[in-house]
Amino acid sequence: MTIDLNCDLGESYGVYTLGMDQEVLPLVSSANIACGGHAGDAAVMAHTVALAKQYGTAVGAHPGFLDKEGFGRRHIAMKEEEIYQLCLYQIGALHAFCVAEGVKMQHVKPHGALYNAALRDSDVAKGVVRAVKDFNKDLLLFAPVHTELHAQGEREGLQVVKEIFADRTYTAEGTLTPRTEKKAFIDQPEKAADQVLEVLQKGTVRAVDGTVVAMEADTVCVHGDNEQAVLFIQHLKKQLEHHGTRVQAAGDRI
């Protein structure tokens, strides 16, 4: 068995340094690189794509709302056409640096509030999916199962890569526990690995209230802004390998 391991990276900008890209990139198989919306800038995009090339890590665009002050975690009401333009603009920006480095862009994964909105709002999902399809219909789309984003991606003929999170908990509805709630985060690498292994081996995840929810995964995300990101990823990879699962980029698995 193989699984993709992804992380949100390239989220520094200007004089602000966020995440541990240099340490994380060699450990993951796919990097979701910020495109200047919620974070990142031209210099950081160029540097991160170059690092990904150096380590052989697959590159994906990570578009978000234009909200650096809120790190893209505040919802901004936008029409479908505006979402389409927002995503197309940011995908194109990162693609330019991929072309310059001779790196193939593998996938697109929305960030933060944009991601959450696309999971439940059909208009937002349509805007994101249309941007991906119009830019390059061969790009992979990262999305959780049982969501509008997943359904719309499949409806439009995109290859959808089913995503779960190692360091976040789930509700009984199969959605991520809101960040504002106490039990939203998993703070122990062992528990994060156990959650991932349950999904891979049993096709279920245990929600915060104890409910067992059906879940599927082709890729696992560990957040790069987690202070323990390196430790989480190292432990997760060790446990995956121990249970006969190899980490491999989503594009190489399809």
Task: Give your account of this protein's structure.
The protein has 254 residues and is α/β, with parallel strands linked by helices. Helices cover 41% and strands 17% of the residues. It contains 9 helices and 10 strands. A 7-stranded parallel β-barrel has the order 1-2-3-4-5-6-9. It starts with a strand and ends with a helix.
Largest sheet: 7 strands, parallel, barrel
Looking across the biggest beta sheet, what order are the strands in? 1-2-3-4-5-6-9
Nearest-angstrom radius of gyration?
17 Å
Order of helices and strands: EHEHEHEHHEHEHEEEHEH
Residue share in β-strands:
15-25%
Ends: how far apart?
Answer: 13 Å
Average pLDDT taken over every residue:
96
Helical content band: 40-55%
Which helices and strands appear, and what pairs or packs with what?
Layout: E1 2-9, H1 21-24, E2 30-34, H2 42-55, E3 58-62, H3 80-101, E4 105-108, H4 112-120, H5 122-135, E5 140-143, H6 148-155, E6 159-165, H7 189-202, E7 204-206, E8 212-214, E9 219-221, H8 229-242, E10 246-247, H9 250-253
Parallel strand pairs: 1-2, 1-9, 1-10, 2-3, 3-4, 4-5, 5-6, 6-9
Antiparallel strand pairs: 7-8
Helix pairs in contact: 2-3, 3-5, 4-5, 5-6, 7-8
What would you say about this model in short?
With 254 residues, the chain is α/β, with parallel strands linked by helices. The protein has helices spanning 21-24, 42-55, 80-101, 112-120, 122-135, 148-155, 189-202, 229-242, 250-253, and strands at residues 2-9, 30-34, 58-62, 105-108, 140-143, 159-165, 204-206, 212-214, 219-221, 246-247.
